[in-house]
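Board notes (copied after class):
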Amino acid sequence: MIFLYNIGLLLYWLGVHVGALFYPKARRLVRGQRWALRRLKRAMANRGQRRVVWVHCASLGEFEQGRPLIDKLRSRHPDIFILLTFFSPSGYEVRKGYPAADYVCHLPFDFWWVAYRFVRIAAPDVAVFVKYEFWYHYLKALKRQGAKAYVISAIFREQQAFFDRLYGKFFVQILGFCEHIFVQDGQSLDLLDSVGVHNASYAGDTRFDRVLEVAASASALPQLAQLTSPAYLTLVAGSTWPPDEELLAGLVNKTPNMKLIVAPHEVSEGNVRSLLSLFEKPAIRYSQWRENMDSVNLEEYSIFIVDAVGFFASLYRFGDIAYVGGGFGVGIHNILEAAAFGIPVIFGANYKKFREATDLVALGGAFPISSAMELLTVVGTLSIHRQRYEECCSVCRTYVQQRKGATEVILSSIIQ
């Protein structure tokens, strides 16, 4: 089975290099990994005798889950050298200057000779893999070197390779390289137990700790208070894709006394221009407003488009209702960022593989929609029936508050 794993990995590597000729993201991945080991060696030469904690995140979503742990490690153990890696080039580009980490770099492909060299250079005492990314050779190299590898905020489903009758044993072997696996729910524990994996326990999802931190300290763009007022219903939409944006534009164009703050998932110039063309009401971009901050009166605009990254989650505090994109594609993005502010959340129909979404729908704090009419109906109901609206807010706020604390559980175990 390891032969097939290595062949599959090689084909993946070749596909990325061919794709780099045509796609910018693949090109960034290739360039980022090209000299990763050489740069890592230089960075680790300056760590002295400090212990090393390596935290790996596939991309930005996993980083947000791992961030509470990294921040607490940094504040409580300032002597530790924190190495942060990303496989996704977009995750690296956004967080390469993250101040709580001593060094941030790309993680090269999981070829055995690369993995062993990476682990030998980094020499971590502890490695933390956030949620996914079970790399065979990296985890095996860590085990051989005597480093303890943890997986945090993990979630398992029956459809995953670990539980396949034909090749599940190979992937279960990967889990055996881990010191411990912290899972999000009881179902994951039961699945692991069914295949003989017992080095696991329930800790919860560190995202709840992160979104509560953001909600408690939200301070980005206080000037946006000019855009909103009690006379308007303010909808804040995050991580939107074109199908989401068409629905939102139709809603805002037809609804009086409504304001929209929207952050598209893709902030390229072409995509932002396409988004602007959908609106019939006055709209302004964040970049445009920032350059003319003193002369622009936000009260004159109905739509504010966030064409930048890194701070959008804190803008949910300006909203009466949240909309989270992705539900008309591969799946919705993070709805907890909105729920932490205690406002109802709306999203597209593809949400059922996300536990927090199914929970909040069942509890009545979130609403899936599949058409423009359904979006209009949900927004109209929440804006008219005040008691129903307040109940939804309470559901979301309570749901997030009751699930905090995973970071402390994980941190205490790792430090011991």
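Comment from the instructor: The chain has a mean pLDDT of 91. The chain has two domains: 13-213+404-415, 216-401.
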